[in-house]
Automatic annotation (TrEMBL):
Family stated for the protein in its record: Belongs to the ABC transporter superfamily.
Name under which the protein is recorded: Amino acid ABC transporter ATP-binding protein
Keyword terms of this UniProt record: Amino-acid transport, ATP-binding, Cell membrane, Membrane, Nucleotide-binding, Transport
Localisation per UniProt entry: Cell membrane
Length: 240
């Protein structure tokens, strides 16, 4: 579903991704951990085409997105993205937030867009919040709205960049629960997270990144229980 081949991304002299090879198969939940500044967000943003690779290739469902012939907007529509900051429009109701891209990008009519929005709100347990404004919701609810908004676009895969890092601890669980349900339903997911419990229980694979490289990957239980690379050992000893 997602394939990076020798992916390099540099910002000026700063080479942030130093040749990433990564394949994510349909239905997999791949979790990425690693120190701050290791390139995790840049990798996700490169997969989502928010960053143009300096070298190497990114294929989404077999389509080379680095090929100038490729219609990037079409490919991007297949990928849902959820950020640490929820990025909801503050001046729009929840329903407004969930319908604006559907109408503009998917060209759906108002009724259809609202029906889909209500279905997705149901999926994240917020059916009763359709008319609320983001400022009246908790952080956990806002992030669930952001997930519902991504789902409204019928993505084939979802990218999550530290989706619970901005939340108060007591609100983390409700967001992880929604993500777990999505995973159980077979959604292909690439998740940058510090939630080792989620990675262990939900992840099909765990990747450790450091300094722009994938240093280690494998079954989450195995990587967490007996990391092989000294850098992984050091990182986990500090976060676990
Ligand atoms: P992580 O998500 O693992 O914390 P990032 O991918 O956000 O790491 O950042 C890795 C490095 O890339 C950092 O040194 C950061 O300063 C640099 N970087 C990220 N985005 C940009 C950008 N748009 N312009 C310049 N440098 C950037
Ligand atoms: Mg980051």
């Amino acid at each position: 579903m997602i394939e990076a081949q020798g992916l390099v991304k540099a910002f000026g002299d700063n080479v942030v991704l130093k040749g990433i090879d990564l394949t994510v198969y349909t239905g997999e939940v791949v979790c990425i951990i690693g120190p701050s500044g290791s390139g995790k967000s840049t990798l996700l943003r490169s997969v989502n085409l928010l960053e143009e690779p300096t070298d190497g290739r990114v294929l989404i469902e077999g389509i080379d997105v680095t090929d100038p012939e490729t219609d990037i907007d079409r490919v991007r529509q297949r990928i849902g993205m959820v950020f640490q900051s929820f990025n909801l429009f503050p001046h729009l109701s929840v329903l407004g937030n969930l319908t604006v891209a559907q109408r503009r990008v998917k060209k759906r009519g108002k009724e259809e867009a609202e029906q889909i929005a209500r279905e997705m709100l149901e999926r994240v347990g917020l059916a009763e919040k359709a008319d609320a404004f983001p400022s009246h919701l908790s952080g956990g609810q806002q992030q669930r709205v952001a997930i519902a908004r991504a789902l409204c676009m019928n993505p084939d895969m979802m990218l999550f960049d530290e989706p619970t890092s901005a939340l108060d601890p007591e609100l983390v669980g409700e967001v992880l629960q929604v993500m777990r349900t999505l995973a159980d339903e077979g959604m292909t997911m690439l998740v940058v997270t510090h939630e080792m419990g989620f990675a262990r229980e939900v992840g099909s694979r765990l990747i450790f990144m450091d300094g722009g490289h994938i240093l280690e990957q494998g079954d989450p239980r195995e990587v967490l229980a007996s990391p092989q690379h000294p850098r992984t050992q050091d990182f986990l000893s500090r976060v676990l």
